[in-house]
Amino acid sequence: MRFYSNFVLRKSRIGKDGSYPIYLRLLFKGRRVDLSSGMRCIPKNWDEVHQVFYELTDEAQSSNQRLRKVKTSVVDIYNRFVSSGKEFDVVDIKNEFLGKSESKGMLEVFDYYLKTIENNIGHGYAFRTLKHYRVSRKKLAEFLKKKLRKKEIPITSVDYNFLNQFDMFLKSEYGVHQNTAWNYHKHLKRVMNLAVSMGHLDKSPYNQFKTKLEQANRDFLTKDELHRLETKEIDLDRLSIVRDIFVFACYTGLAYSDISKLSPDHIQTRNDGNQWIIINRTKTKTQCSIPLFPNAIEILERYSDYPESLLKGRVLPVASNQKLNSYLKELANICGINKKLTMHMARHTFATTVTLSNGVPIETVSKILGHKSLKITQIYARVLENKISEDMMQLKNKLGM
């Protein structure tokens, strides 16, 4: 693959005297970088064909000597890289010319980011976040190995084409949904932003590469299904406890990560004389103020002297999220609910069935859920509109209309 180097005037940066900066444009392996020569020229004094100053003065001749010196140095660096037999690109040539250190590896920077998360678990990060980032790191390593036949690449090699190939790899190799791919990109994007902050990159490749988050189908329990779940006689203690925790989530809108850390300190009596949950959400760090319904208070009282709760200083005996979701499958079968129950569905149920469908303003629901943006809460409103539309269509069919 040929290497090209040509001097150009950067016409997007005109000076007060009408001059433009002169850059040496490097082209190699489909990538391009511009290297500043440190000189400027007005268009009438520039020979576009030969990429030099018109030699009308001694100063112009001296400037051309400097340009030749820059180009010779760059070509020498290119030849040294070729002789070394190592993988390199135009960014490596630029860094070598500028005297910068060797480019950091992409996975190397990703590992640094992982270490940062690991060191801050409980202080802004949850262990679940670390697990998700580790999965993303694994997928990247597999992409390098299977598609690029490499164990590592310079972080400067991550460009639009790389990200596009990674996106296609995720969808073809693993068959992931668009939103799952979006999450992998979200993690890599944060690593790229870190690389920019650390000076390893001039700008993030995600400035050019965009991936969209599709509107997800947020399933929830209907009023009838929630009532069925609440009133069902359950003999097994472990399922009875899981049912209580799920119902508690349905009436508070709390995510699993927040319920699992809920302590007596989070339960407060406010000026209105009612009990409230005051807690900072684990995911968004926003404070939530949630008034407690009588049935939620009843569940809390049921476990106020429960040994496991007292031992951990928590208000509910919450098992791992994986175990809870496993038990919820059993619970759904017992209650005749033909939906995949998860702890997050309880949060969706609070937003739709418990609040929005009963006339609670969307702004209030957004505050209770701890959403940073009203747009997130509006997803639930759209879900309700779709459900109403489906129900009305079914009614029309029954009536033969």
The description of the largest β-sheet is:
3 strands, antiparallel
Which structural class fits the helix and strand makeup?
mainly alpha
**Name of the level-1 CATH class of the largest domain:** Mainly Alpha
N-to-C series of helices and strands: EEEEEHHHHHHHHHEEEHHHHHH
Instruction: Return the CATH architecture of the largest domain.
Output: Orthogonal Bundle
Description:
This protein has 401 residues and is mainly alpha-helical. It folds into three domains: 4-98, no CATH class; 106-207, Orthogonal Bundle (DNA polymerase, domain 1), CATH 1.10.150; 223-398, Orthogonal Bundle (hpI Integrase, Chain A). It contains 15 helices and eight strands. The strands form three sheets. A three-stranded antiparallel β-sheet has the order 1-2-3. The protein has a three-stranded antiparallel β-sheet with strand order 6-7-8. The longest helix is centred in the N-terminal third of the chain and has 27 residues, at 58-84. It is elongated and about 95 Å long. The mean pLDDT is 87.
